[in-house]
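Morning!

As promised:
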Amino acid sequence: MKWVLLLGVLALLGAGCGGGGKLGAKTLSQQARSLQSDAAEGALLAEDIFSGRTTRVYTRQHSADLHKAASQVEASLKTAKATPGLEGKLRRLEAIATRVSTELERLGHASKGEAPALRRELQAAAEASQKIGEGLK
Amino acid sequence: MSVKNVLAVALGIMSAIGGFVDIGDLVFNTQAGAIFGFQLLWVVVIGVVGIIVYSEMCGRVSAVAQRPVFDLVRERTGFGAGLATLAASEVVNLMTCAAEVGGVAICFQLLSGLPYRLLIPLAVLALAVSSWVLPFRWLERVFGYLGLSMLAFAVAAIKLHPDWGHVAHGFVPGSHSGGSLMVYLYFVVGLLGAAMTPYEVYFYSSGAVEDRWGVKELRLNEVTAMIGYALGGFLSFALMIVAGVLFLPRGISPQFLGTPALTAEHALGQVGLLLALVGILFAVGGAAVETSFAGAYNLAQFFGWRWGKKERPAAASRFTLSWLAIFALALLLVMTGYDPVKLTEYSVIFSVVALPLTYLPILLVANDHAYMGANVNGKLANFLGVLYFGLILAIAVAAIPLMLLTHGGQG
């Protein structure tokens, strides 16, 4: 029984350490796609806030989900190292992830007046992520 | 059709809304639309016809033989194979029930703003209380008809002005663009699996016995299966279309249950959003009830216990304890914090593997003169039954390798 527990703990530690490994083009591209999706969804939500098509509760909850997802990408990019030649792209993507995460957090409490600016910023971040992702193919 | 018959069709609508458009379909249809646009609409048609063929068959078996599917599974396949089918279907039922319970809690959260972890036990409590208090027919009606609020997605699909020529083209299988061939095949398997999940037929056939169907209800069975699942298919089309119009061009890959509601919100405003969320709530809630009952029906029918909502809980105590236990286990599973959407993807793919074990006994019994007499399968039912069984075998073999090769559709 002790051996089973020990193996379980080692497996969990191994899984936990995995996030800090070197990222290849494929993984980085997946992270870029994920960020693009979160940012684009946030931009769509911002558009609906501006036009009064959404409810406050839905906006708060859904943008919190998106913020959480973007923060997870940000955290994994911050601790990761890229394979040679991809360091620059990793850092650019990390900066975008920080921006997207912050803007999605603001989106949850954004007023109608703040929504257009957030929409533009999130849209720009989505396009920048897409560009990095396409450059990795 | 009389008012009585309209209400009677509720079994099909609940099975279809809660089975065809459960959390699995919400996830797979919107993800498929977001990646491939309208190109996979033809798969939904194949899935709808398949589930109509087999639901009609098992409803007919229940009405004629007065015995539901799992009762016959053990008799036709023997104890060993029957036990394997039971184990596989119970695991899939539990995973699906947990995903649906998580889905109900997410809908409550999107509507109320209360914390998700607080809403999980409340969701289970609400589902268990309504399952306990409401008679079977009212369970069908409440979840089936309130789930129809999801028609907001159909209205949204029209309001978003898709290119109808492209939509029509999606009903014809052909070459694909937008993702790799493996991912395309993964979604073909996932969409078929989500359309033909085993719990739908377990619930449908046991429901037919609960509703006391006899030979006189055979016509009602045909109408119920056709209207109910066609409606479910229609909603699946709508989900794929709205995702194709709104998410595909923006590169949005839906990963939350709240994401599909964004399409109704964008097209119809706050009313659309609320209708979509209420529709999802009742569709997913109906599926949670269906899966817990399907699990209890299977256990009771396999071991020969007294079963049914028509029985007093004390008279069918082991059956009642079984569905309560499934809700309790689902609660524990969701409380671990595992993402219900991810759980759904796994439960749909694993249910595909269990499909042949479910559908073969139905096909065999529906062909058996000893059980069915004059109501045995006709040529068309047999042709379609065998054709679909071949398809089911193919996707059962392909499901797990495709899931591993594509990292669950991620490419």
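The first helix of chain A runs from residue 2 to 17.

Hope this helps with the figure draft.
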